[in-house]
Amino acid sequence: MLIRLTGGTVYDPASGIDGQKQDIYIENGRIIDKPQGEFKVDKEYDLKGKVVMSGAIDMHTHIGGGKGNIARTLLPEDHRQDPVPRSDITRSGCGHAMPSTFVTGYRYAEMGYTAGFEPALLPINARQAHMEMGDIPILDKGGYVMLGSDDYLLRLLTAKKDQKAINDYVAWTMHTAKAIGVKVVNPGGINAFKFNQRKLDLDEQNAHYGVTPRDILRVLATAVKELGVPHPLHVHGCNLGVPGNVQTTLDTIQGIGGLPMHLTHIQFHSYGTEGDFKFSSGAAQIAEAINSNKNITVDVGQILFGQTVTASGDNMRQHANHKFASPNKWVVMDIECDAGCGVVPFKYKDQNFVNALQWAIGLETFLLVNDPWRIFLTTDHPNGAPFTSYPHLIRLLMDRSFRNDMLSTIHPEAQKMTTLASIDREYTLQEIAIMTRAGAAKLIGLKDRGGLSAGNFADITIYTDNADRQKMFEKPDYVFKDGQLVVVNGKVVSTKWGTTHVVKPDFDPSVEKGLNDYFDRYLTMKLGNFKISDDEIIEDGRGSITVHPLSS
Amino acid sequence: MIEITEVPSPFCGIGTDDLTIRVDGVSLKVIENGCAVNTPAFEQAITDTSPRVNGQEVSLDVAITAAAALLKDTRLPVIGGCATDVNGMRGLLALADRAGAVVDNMNFTGARNNFLALQDSGWMNTTLAEVKNRCDVFLVVGTDLEAFAPRFFERYLWNQEAMFLDNTGARDIVYLGKSPTGSASTSPSGKQAQVLPCATEDLPEVIAVLRALVKGQLITAQTVCGIAVADLQVLADKFKAAKYSVVTWAAGALAYAQAELTVQQLSEMIKDLNNQNTRCSGLPLAGKEGDQTANQVCGWTTGYPARTRFSAGYPEYDPFLNDTNLLLANGEADALVWVQAFNSKSVPPETTLPTIVVARSGMVFTKEPEVFIPVGTPGIDHVGHAYRMDNVVAIRLKKLRDSGLPSTAEVLNAIEQAL
Q: Under a CB-based contact definition with an 8 Å cutoff, are residues B196 and B233 in contact?
């Protein structure tokens, strides 16, 4: 079937198209060039006055894995306020802070998103993450496998194994966990917490291994680069949420020595200690460092006011933050000599000085980083806010007067501590398209996604231009996924199953010798039973695996 | 005849995956690393392979049509058991969503003791590999651990080597409440577990005193429920001196009213210890008959654990009112679907309601159900996934033989489609 999208205003940064009128042709799930000679259009959509972008990609969202399911189980009262009935074409479930899997897929699609990436795939829990993501309809998905607090890596470092040994282990883990990136969370800190260490600075040694977070970051960032994994090492740094951590973050940027590095939810790592409350914004310093270090990319992890739940691999920091739990219940776990997790419900309040300033720090960061190809729109769902708040966040970025109206309502002392009111910048539609589409696809290394030129998969979102950007982005007119019309007027009209994106870097098969011995001696599972097979993702007839090329 | 090695078990809950099984046609023999729980569960013979409607053997298609017809006009069917693998639960939840059914895992009343504590105040827990490599003090509360999982000690405490312990045999094992029935808790070098016995229903009082001692409160009584307070003080001091202590319990073994408060008291004690410059974690025992699997899959599909109804068109969780036995006894349910792919001895509750049973071959009924569909067992007749007790690890189950029996998922998906 040949589909023509006629006369829309196209924002396709991947091709350098910035608001030009263009027709788009779709056939067999892909975008094609206008056919030569005579041809018959089977279905035409008149898009005059509409805005056309590729489907949005959330490059950091907690949509699969055990900690999310703990968060769900912990908060029945949150689900009860947002029940989602079934329909003839959709399954029932629940929404708000940590929605059920089916509702996650529907609500992302209804905002024009066609892909989401789980940033914390624990190797031992990767099966669960893929099974949960396997129950998320419409979206493509993928995950970044978490390393850095696993005892095997720390043993390799203590034994002074060479970089090649590290690379083989990282590549092997990416294969077994079916990942497209590598994440490190509080490098070594989750492990140190098991030895009763309660904080771990960038140059502080793990009490047992003598290894520092700086060492771990360097070897993992090197491994990712040398293996040709397109997505740079995805880093949740040390000292999350700690006043003064802006210095840790600046040191982390310097310490990586020019290697590609993605700093995630940077907002939570940009805090100073100035002012009466010893809590201040470090956003300007961080933005300056990002602007001048081209090897660095970030996503923001914006907080927005209201109830949510924080679910993190960083059990050390989550344990420290449990006293802020609201409601007062929380879970911390140590996990399988592999990692950990912490789940703490949070209610961010605009009249709380710290929360209000966190809100301003996130927005300052968005507005002070110059290059939209190196900063990404996230709330670290659900940690800063549920993903359903993205249209509101887009309006804050695109509409200065709206932003300043909001600013005037937050805690007055926080207003004094932020430069937000003096920042004139308003994001353009093209910049939004870069952050949420072309830039995200490039950052993750997705071939044939995130663009609208011929050859791309037909993941396309169409909006009605509206000066109220929140209204515009929360209700697209049409969403196509792989050429199938899945959303009309902000409601799901049909469903399908997306693919799982992975990369498969090479490794020396002899890496399994050491691993096999380690598994038999210390772990609770046979190596052969640990490895996830392709079958596990595709055998239900719904899933598929898409392998992306490595960087040369 | 073939031998299959590194076979994982969905039966014991502790994720043993080192069994060697000899397969001869459809008969299985565990030849290495069996135990009192796993060996009979694997070796049980296939007896019936044919579905029945009203006691008459029929084809699978006929049985599925009959099951769909039976469910079609019901107002509140109950799907009990819920003992199957991940794909089986996916199919079960799709059917429940369509039929407006109640979903209730058969072990939920026991598991409820954990869920109520979790949903009220949370907890700090750990997993088996951390126990194996770090645990120096291990407290078993109200549970006969080796009867629950015969190989627990061998695999996770008396392992020859541990990364962070010089001598695993030096671990301190303490039982509170129930005494062990065997000697698995005695270390290979002969170090015996300490037992502080009391009646199970006295545990709330004993644990309240233990937590008070952990917090440094003054206790003036000399004994509590037959246990010397001095002995509890020694235990509290052991926890404080430990590097990585672990407390385990089986929620279902705490069989007295409001046992969730016991789980909460233990979990809060663990939190207290973590604020006293040491590490301590909980380790709830479970993972049998697909209970963790049911709660996990129901969790991500609905947001709630597996005692949830769909009768309003969307999921509603109630850990008390959605109890199968209660709904049957009160006359609220009008049909029963019993799903039990692991254990043919686990028969449906007695009821006069129309009943569909989707279960492991060999189930014997006092009253023949309207529809019986024998299915394969996950990990024997088909591949699958099952969660072990610590909930983080889903084990990949193997297919060991070609029995021709359909999977739970195939049967439940077909019934859902027929509706």
A: no
Here the CATH number for the domain that contains residue B338 is: 3.40.50.740
Chain A residues inside the 8 Å CB shell of B395? 525, 529
Both B226 and B144 in one domain: the answer is yes
Residues B86, B183 within the same domain: no
**pTM score:** 0.98
The four Cα atoms B293, B296, B299, B305 give a dihedral, to 10 degrees, of 60
Nearest CB among B98, B164, B314 relative to A85 is that of: B314
Judge: A79–B87 Cβ closer than 8 Å, yes or no: no
Instruction: Find out whether A87 and A489 touch, Cβ atoms under 8 Å.
Output: no
DSSP, residue by residue, B55-83: TEE--HHHHHHHHHHHHHT-SSEEEEEEE
Q: Which residues of B touch A68 (CB under 8 A)?
A: 300
pLDDT tens digits, residue range B47-72? Answer: 999 999 999 999 999 999 999 999 99
| Helical residues (DSSP H) of B215-343, grouped into ranges | 229-241, 260-274, 291-302, 324-329
pLDDT score of A540 more than 90? no
If pLDDT is split at 50, 70 and 90, which confidence band does A541 have? Answer: confident
Cβ separation B302–A92 shorter than 8 A: yes
Cβ within 8 Å, pair A524-B156: yes
Q: Is B116 found in the same domain as B84?
A: no
Q: Report the CATH fold assignment for A55-450.
A: TIM Barrel (3.20.20)
Asked if A319's CB is within 8 angstroms of B305's CB, the reply is no
Burial letters B167-181, b for 16+ CB under 10 A, else e? ebeebbbbbbbbebe
Quick check: A418 and A403 in contact, CB under 8 A? no
How far does B119 lie from chain A, in Å, by closest CA?
Answer: 5
Q: Is A224's pLDDT higher than 90?
A: yes
pLDDT in tens, A369-425: 999 999 999 999 999 999 999 999 999 999 999 999 999 999 999 999 999 999 999
pLDDT at A265 over 90: yes
For residues B43 and A238, what is the distance between their CA atoms, to the nearest angstrom?
51
Summarize the confidence of residues B103-126 as an average pLDDT: 98
Q: Which domain holds residue B279?
A: 111-285
A262 pLDDT exceeds 90? yes
Residue of B313, B315, B385 with shortest CB distance to A131: B385
Q: At what angle do helices B291-302 and A101-110 cross, to 10 degrees?
A: 20
Q: Are strands A2-12 and A17-27 parallel, antiparallel or unpaired?
A: antiparallel
Last residue of a domain, one of B285, B312, B331: B285
- At residue A315, the 3 state secondary structure works out as helix
Residue A329 and residue B120: Cβ atoms within 8 Å?
yes
Co-location of B254 and B302 in the same domain: no
Nearest Cα residue in chain A from B164 = A208
Is the predicted ipTM greater than 0.85, yes or no? yes
